[in-house]
Amino acid sequence: MVSAINSCALDAVAHALSDGPVPLLVLRLPEFERIAWREGKRAARRVERATLRIFHEASQRAVRAGDLTLHEPGSDLFLIAMTARGRAARLPSPVDCRTVLERVGAAVSLDSGLRVETGWTLVQRNEGAAGIDAAAGTALERGARERERYEFFSTIGHELRTPLTSIRGYLETLLDGDADPALAPQFLETARRETLRMARLLDGMLEFSLLDLSADALAQTCQLNAQIDAACEVVRPLAQLRGITLRVATSPPVNALLDADAALQLLINLIENAIKYGREGGVVNVDAQASGAEAVVRVDDDGPGIDPAERDAIFGLRVRGAQSFARPGHGIGLAIVKMIAERAGGAVRVDRSPLGGARFEVALPTKAEFGISLS
Ligand code: ADP
């Protein structure tokens, strides 16, 4: 089983595109490959045929006359090209596309019991079969990003409700005059603390939403050394508060294939953590070096480090580790670091630092695909 489809079915879509751009809705069932591998090709074909039936039934209920549904035998992709034109030849809106995708995706997932990835994109006029195949990949990637954001914001939204309820509770008690006047300052102080907590949550939310992770932003380059200096400026007050010395290694300038804002965000998150979790009165080292086609940034601290058993998990959204006790935070910083690094085609990992604490190492590409070296 492969994701790629190159058939006359795609030629049919390509033909229908002679009218102009068309939304292409994509469903992918990644488990087909696992079934073929574990249970054999015949079992996989059986599941595929059953899924195709469900896909057709669900699509018939959701799409308009004139839209095309497509699936090539042996592929794990199921496509809907919204080629029908409504009155005034209007393109379906993004909401229309998402609604159809959600309906068909939910039906396929519910009836087949298999995980379904979805996404949509516009396919341009004169797109050949190969272009449509590539567009299917783009659509799925975009769908994954949308889901990630949705999950993130719904979690934060949920988190914001708790402090809000608590603040309202305290204020109402004070307004009702039910509370012992001696307790009023304590209530107000708790409410104030909760507003600060809300502000931190909102900061995390803004950081996330401000990241422009479009293809354009990822095609930008920045000078890492300049971003390291800027990040150190931002976190210096926190370092001073904990008596920590920030040491930035003087190595030759190195560029990375990443938007400056995203690089700054990544660096602030890592250096801030090193200060937050590092030893009081200790040191934090920051270093960026070119290594082959990559730029490697290292942030070292002399704190307690991270248990090997926790090293993968801490990059998850809203995951806080053993060292988080009594330190403010929401388990968002490293998830953002990972997302930025991976979107740029790089990676992040954590190890033991020669300083005794944690070493976070981010590898970022320095070369564009067409082979121009930026370092
Ligand atoms: P937060 O710091 O808000 O908990 P992060 O996503 O930034 O969220 O970090 C996730 C977890 O990783 C932290 O809760 C902490 O346990 C661990 N961690 C991150 N950086 C360090 C570090 N430099 N030293 C020790 N532990 C760290």
Would you report the number of β strands? Answer: 11
- Backbone CA Rg: 26 Å
CATH class of the largest domain, anyone? Alpha Beta
Give, in order, the helices and strands.
Answer: HEHHEEHEHHHEHEEHEEHEE
What is the overall number of helices? 10
> How would you name the CATH homologous superfamily of the largest domain?
Histidine kinase-like ATPase, C-terminal domain
Q: How would the global form be characterised? A: globular
Runs in which pLDDT lies below 50 for 5 or more consecutive residues are 1-6, 369-375
CATH architecture name of the largest domain: 2-Layer Sandwich
Tell me the number of structural domains: 2
Report how far the terminal alpha carbons are from each other. 40 Å
